Amino acid sequence: RFVLDGPGAQTVSFYTPGATSQRFWDLEIDNSAGVTFISDVYVNQDLVMTSGTVGGTRTTYIGGDLVEVLGGNQYQVQGASFSGDPALPASVQSNVTFTGTKILAANLEVLGNLTVTGSLDIATDTLLVTGNFNTTGSGTLTMATPTAVLGVDGGAAFNGGSTTGLLTDGVIYAGGNVSTDCCVSTSLAPSGNHRFVLDGPGAQTVSFYTPGATSQRFWDLEIDNSAGVTFRRLWAGGSSMREPLRRWPATC
């Protein structure tokens, strides 16, 4: 375990950071004056914020949990990449990436962008993203319960792996544009009771690269946007396309 507990502000800078090179194992920050990460930083196990904040414009790669003892967004580094199934604070102020298998165990708010290159299961919880949501590479999203909610203030891009059989229930609220790319034809392939709501504060567009009843599609779609929505390529495969029923709460 490595503890940063200086009487004044501290910095961390690694010349060759990496999971198998220059790194921390378990890292604790207990410095009320604050710590700044100058370079990318790898923490192969847990990062524990006992006091103070940590900031920086690079990315921290965390193999275990992110713990904020005092709360209030003590972690403020621009990027946070998680390779496991970490325990997280209720709110993370960073651009977050999940590269492993993450199953939500509680509600989570990401104050930034969220990228999934592994797998993310919202389970029975609510995930709010104030920036953009993106699946890429082989990344997938799972929503399989009625209480699963994904609220995205920005755009939602489904450019990852196949979601066939993964999006069977729950609701996605998108405030920005919705898109897919050409790599996997079923990167957005909901079914069952899944619902998608377009309720942005401004005009939105929907663009599917390979739309179809068995490829990129919506299941149930609700439009609740007074500024309007433009469809470029689209397939709604469920029971209906609906216009305004209800909005995502204004606190989203």
Uncertain segments: 239-252
Number of strand segments: 27
Instruction: Name the overall outline.
Output: elongated
In terms of DSSP E residues, the strand content is: 35-45%
Averaging pLDDT over every residue, what do you get? 93
Distance between the termini: 38 Å
Number of DSSP helices?
0
Gyration radius, in Å: 19 Å
Give the arrangement of secondary structure elements.
Elements: E1 2-4, E2 10-12, E3 27-30, E4 35-37, E5 41-43, E6 47-51, E7 54-62, E8 66-68, E9 75-82, E10 91-92, E11 95-98, E12 101-103, E13 108-110, E14 114-116, E15 119-121, E16 126-129, E17 133-136, E18 140-142, E19 149-152, E20 156-159, E21 171-174, E22 178-180, E23 195-198, E24 204-207, E25 220-223, E26 229-233, E27 241-242
Parallel strand pairs: 1-3, 2-4, 3-6, 4-7, 5-7, 6-8, 7-9, 9-11, 10-13, 11-14, 12-15, 13-16, 14-17, 15-18, 16-19, 17-20, 19-21, 20-22, 21-23, 22-24, 23-25, 24-26, 25-27
